[in-house]
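ok here's Vasotab-like:
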Amino acid sequence: MKLFILAVLIAYLGVTESQNCTTTCRPGVEFLCGKTLRNGRMIYCTYRNPCEMDLHACRKREEWTKHLTGRCPRDSDECRL
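and the structure:
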């Protein structure tokens, strides 16, 4: 029983920490074009690396995925915000 409680506590702390969006990304450039669906519209934004895209997704509470390697052909207007 104690082991079960400990496992639940560790899982809870892991989820809480992951929702704080405090990851520090390593410097480095491997541009990628990420995409997400927002209000029924597909949004495309260029990120310096996958970590920066994941950090942005965490902060916006959105699911971003890699669309293509390199810069997006055209970033959506929402990327400037």
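+1. The two ends are 49 Å apart (CA to CA).
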